[in-house]
Amino acid sequence: MKPFTKIVSIITPFDKANVDTDQIIPKQFLKLITKSGFGKFLFYDWRFDHDGQKKNDFILNDPTYNDSQILITNENFGCGSSREHAVWALKDFGFNVIISPSFADIFYSNCFKNGVLPIILDIEKIKKLLLYKDKIELDLNSQKITFGDESINFEIDSHRKIRLLEGLDDIDLTLKEDEKIEYFEKNSSRISIFE
Amino acid sequence: MTETLFEKIWNSHVVVERENEPSLIYIDRHLIHEVTSPQAFDGLRANNRDVRRRDLTVATIDHNVPTTDRSLPMIDETSSTQIKTLEKNCKDFGIKLFGINDPNQGIVHVIGPQLGITLPGSTIVCGDSHTSTQGAFGAFAFGIGTSEVEHTLATQTLWLEKPKTFEILATGKRKNPFAVTSKDIILSIIKQIGTDGGTGHVLEYHGDAISDLSMEQRMTICNMSIEAGSRAGLIAPDEKTFDYLNNRKYTPTNYDELVDYWKSNLMSDTNSKFDKSFTIDVDKIEPQVSWGTNPAMVSDVTGKIPTPEEFGQNNEIQIESAKKALLYMDLKPDTPIVEIPVDRVFIGSCTNARLEDLKDAAEIVNGKTVNSHVGAMVVPGSQMVKLEAEKLGLDKIFKDANFEWRESGCSMCLGMNPDILKPGERCASTSNRNFEGRQGSGGRTHLVSPVMAAASAIAGHFVDVREFC
C-alpha cells in the first residue's frame, strides 16, 4: 500500500445520510475478480439514468468536483453489505478521504486496508468546512485540516494512523507475531471442521 | 469480576493484546463465497503466501448461482467466471468447497449451522455482513471485507478493536406466535434503535421472548443485527442450541464433552455490565412491513405510511431521508399499509429461508392460489432445506398455488443472479435490506416475515396475516 501523504483538494459535498454500500457500488458490478476498475461504477444508479446517460443534477457529475479527493457526507455512511468493492470504487474514482459524522463499522475498517482515510467529525465542524469552496489542506501527521486562515483537528486511532502514513501491510505485521499465534494454537487446540 | 458472554468469547480468543492498540483475535471458522474472495486469493499468490488453517476454512457458492435448472449452462459469463475462479482457488489452496452441484450447497449462513460447522463460543468470519446470523449459537460471528478475508486465510487471525456491548432484553410473550414472528421482533427493534443504534457494539439478545424462540427464529434475529449497525448479534446457547447442533455432518466427535463445557461457561454473568441497554416487550408487537429504503422505516401492518415529519420527529436528516424514500417507493403518507398492492413476492434469503420459514409460509398458502397479478417465488436457503421441504411435500403446496419453486442461493435478496425486480416493481420480500435498487434497479422492496409474504401473495396486497390464521 502507498503511504498516505498530505492532501490538497476541494471538498465534494454529498449531503445524504445512511448511504449504503449497495448505492456506492451496485451488485451488478461485484462480479469482477480484480480490485481495479470500479471507479466508473461508483454510485451508478445515482449517476446514470436507465439509458446509461449521466444525470446532470447529481453532484459527482458536476465537473467542478472532477479533481476532488475529499468527500463529505452525512451520518452512517457505508452501512449494509460488507463489500470492500465500495472502498475500491471510491478510491478508484479519486477519493482518498471521506468525512462524516459517523461510519458503519465494516466500511470504516475496509477504508484503512486500502489507504483511504475516514474522518469522523461532528456536524458543526462539517457545516463550517462545507462553507469553504477553495482547496483545503489535510495533514494526517498533525491530524489537522486547514482551510484559509482557519483549521480544525481530527481524531484518529494512533495505530491506524501509523499504518496509513507508512503504508504498512497488515499481513506482514501479523506474520511478525507468528510465534504468538503458534503458541495460542498449541495451548488451546482449535476444533478442526474435518476430524 | 463479572463478564458478558461476548467478553468471555473475546478473552478466550486473544492472541496479542497491547495497551491502546487493536487486539489480535484468533478465528475458529472462516467461510468463503465466490464474490468477496477472488481478490484475497490473488493477494496470497502475489505474496507467495499459503492458507494457514485449511481445516478451519470452508467455501460455498451462493451469491451468483442461478436458482433455475442447474444442468443448463450459465448464461451470465461474469458470474460463471467468478464461480470458476472460486473452484480453482479452492483446488489450488486445498479448501473444502460445497460447489454448485453439491447436496450441501446453500447460502453460507444457512449451511454453517446445518452442517454443524457453527459452534458455540467460537469466532466465525465470512466476507458477508450477514455472518451475524450465526451469533444465534453463542458464537462471535461477523462480516469482514476482502482484505480481512485475505488476512484470515494467511494468518487465521484478525486485528480488531474490542466492540462495546449492547444488551437487548426481550420480555413478554407474543400474542399470536404463528403470525407475529422473530422477523417482526427484529424489525421492531431496528425501528426503535435505528440503523446505526448498534454501531460499534455487539448486540446480546436475551429474555423470555428470546428463550421462547426456536434456533431458526433466533437466527433471523441475529441475522438482522447488522441492519441495526452491529457487526455481530449474540444469543447465549441453551438446550435448543445443543439439540440443534447434535448429530450434524460436522458435529465434533467429543460433542457431549463440549456441551458440558459450554453449559457452564457460555452465558453472561449475573449483573454483568453492558455499555448500552434496550428493552422491548413483545406482547405489543404486530406483524411489521417496511415502507421506506432503510430497515428502520417500518410500520405495523395495521398502520399507515407516516408523514416524513412523523417519522423524522424534528430530526431534519431523518425527515429528508423519509421524503426521498417515499418518492423512491412511490408511496403517499396516510396510505394504510394493507392498501399497498404487491407485484412480486420473494420468500428466500439467509434471513428467512430455512425449513420452519417455508413450513409456516406453506401453511398460509395451502389450498389457495397466488393472486393473478403477482409473481411469487420460493428460494430455499440451502439444498438441504429444499430436500427436507420436498420430503414434507411443501414444494407441491407452493407449486399448486402458482409459486415458483427454485434451487437454493441468495437470489433476489440482492439480485446478483437473474432473479431481479424490474424498475418500479413492488415486492413483499422476506429478505433483510430494502435499500434503493437492492433487488433490482428501480425495484421497491418491502421487508416482511414469511407468513406475511405468503399472505400478500394470495391477496395481491399487504394483509394482516392474523386474519389468515
Please render the helix and strand layout as text.
The complex is a heterodimer of chains A (195) and B (469).
Chain A lengths: L6 E3 L1 E4 L6 H4 L19 H4 L22 E4 L11 H9 L3 E4 L4 H8 L4 E4 L2 H8 L5 E4 L4 E4 L2 E4 L4 H9 L3 H6 L2 H10 L8
Parallel strand pairs in A: 2-3, 3-4, 4-5
Antiparallel strand pairs in A: 1-6, 6-7, 7-8
Chain B lengths: L4 H7 L2 E3 L6 E4 L2 E4 L5 H9 L10 E4 L16 H17 L2 E3 L9 H7 L8 E4 L13 E4 L2 H10 L1 E4 L3 E8 L10 H12 L7 E6 L1 H4 L3 H9 L8 E3 L4 H7 L9 H11 L10 E6 L6 E3 L7 E3 L7 H5 L3 H14 L14 E4 L7 H11 L9 E4 L4 H9 L2 H7 L2 E3 L20 E4 L14 E4 L2 H10 L10
Parallel strand pairs in B: 3-4, 3-6, 4-5, 6-7, 9-10, 9-12, 10-11, 15-16, 15-18, 16-17, 18-19
Antiparallel strand pairs in B: 1-2, 2-8, 13-14
Helix pairs in contact in B: 2-5, 6-8, 13-16
Relevant terms:
heterodimer; A: 195 residues; alpha/beta; Aconitase, domain 4; 4-stranded antiparallel sheet; 4-stranded parallel sheet; 30% helix; B: 469 residues; 5-stranded parallel sheet
Q: What oligomeric assembly is this protein in?
A: heterodimer
Largest interface comes to: A-B, 55 and 81 residues
Shape of chain A: globular
**Biggest sheet character of chain A:** 4 strands, antiparallel
- The average pLDDT score of chain B comes to 97
Give the amount of beta strand of chain A, in percent. Answer: 15-25%
CATH class of chain A: Alpha Beta
**Which stretches of chain A are low in confidence, meaning pLDDT under 50 for 5 or more residues running?**
none
